[in-house]
From TrEMBL:
InterPro entries: Aminotransferase_I/II_large, Kynurenine-oxoglutarate_AT, PyrdxlP-dep_Trfase, PyrdxlP-dep_Trfase_major, PyrdxlP-dep_Trfase_small. Residues 26-375 form the Aminotransferase class I/classII large domain. This is Methionine aminotransferase. Keywords: Aminotransferase, Pyridoxal phosphate, Transferase. SUPFAM superfamilies: PLP-dependent transferases. One of its GO terms (cellular component) is cytoplasm. One of its GO terms (molecular function) is kynurenine-oxoglutarate transaminase activity. Gene3D superfamilies: Aspartate Aminotransferase, domain 1, Type I PLP-dependent aspartate aminotransferase-like (Major domain).
Amino acid sequence: HRSKLPNVGTTIFTVMSSLAQDHQALNLSQGFPNFKSDQKLIDLVSSAMNSGHNQYAPMAGIMELRVAIANKFEKLYDTSYHPDSEITVTAGATQAIFTIISAFIKQDDEVILFRPAYDCYDPAVELNGGKVVSVQLEAPHYKVNWDEVKKIITYKTKMIIINTPQNPSGTIFTKEDMVILEDLLRGTDIILLSDEVYEHIIFDGEKHQSACLFPDLKSRSFIVASFGKTFHNTGWKTGYCCAPKELMAEFQKAHQFNVFCVNHPVQKALAEYLQEPNHYLGLSNFYQHKRDLFLSLITDSRFKFVPAKGTYFQVLDYSEITHEDDVDFAKRLTTDHKIASIPLSVFNTHNLDNKVLRFCLAKTDETLNHAAEIINQI
Ligand code: PMP
Ligand code: GLN
């Protein structure tokens, strides 16, 4: 009765990664690369430590890094965020998201999100007394039905959370989606939390539609990003968020008592590493190669798929293989076939008829080849 999250257990990422380890299965479950971050970046962190950047950083992050982030927005999206007042460096995207929600959501406020949804949004809303109202994206294309969204926006709606490219489905919001959203929100005070951690992983020549590209969205948005996804170092837990000054001021009131500030030497290193745009601009090609390789190897398997448009995940439909529930099937694949994945129902999908698993493709080509061999025998 004391629990504020009575329906929450250990996250599926932890469960599946440890099951994979116990059974020595190939781990394509939790999303993280099994290859190294650039040695140059690692050297920059150690030199930052050796040159004495080992005490607290400023609350919002070191100025050099905030300037580098602002420059990236100018260069990629032709838009400006002021390094003094509109950018905060965070302990990964997770902390940014939790703090944004804590800073704004009160008892009975409604938050709209799209399912399947990344798992950290719901508990953050719930802990703050808010209520999640959701719209289901239908497999296999996971496109938004905007008429449904229109119906659930009320005077209680305080925030909408979007995630493009989307974990777990790999779908993206198009320019048309963003324009419709912009129109829908016009004249309201609804805050947009735009989770863009996979902004640099988008395929088939598509362009990432950041919320900052749409003026009437930008003025109400927090853009959330994660260096872990971009530079192959999820364990460093460093990310950032940007928002107009008034929103950011509220965010920082909560942030200063949440973590106060984040890892100083890593910020120092990232500030320098970001100076070279090629360090992130090549990422879409890098991961498109992996998606294409993996899918070309499993075309004759019994799994069905629509190629992911972005992220380093690919969902596979197993409805022609078994009627088993997705959690049971994912566990059985791990213990018996030695390959771990994530069952899609954990992303709070209401539509439990979907027989879908998510596989992480941030793996060496060798691992992907091995994974495909296993998948072809299921
Ligand atoms: N949002 C999404 C959609 C994610 O996939 C992840 C990482 N899996 C996060 C947020 C959290 O990012 P970080 O590791 O930087 O906290
Ligand atoms: N974001 C990663 C994923 O989707 C996992 C992060 C975590 O373990 N919480 O797999």
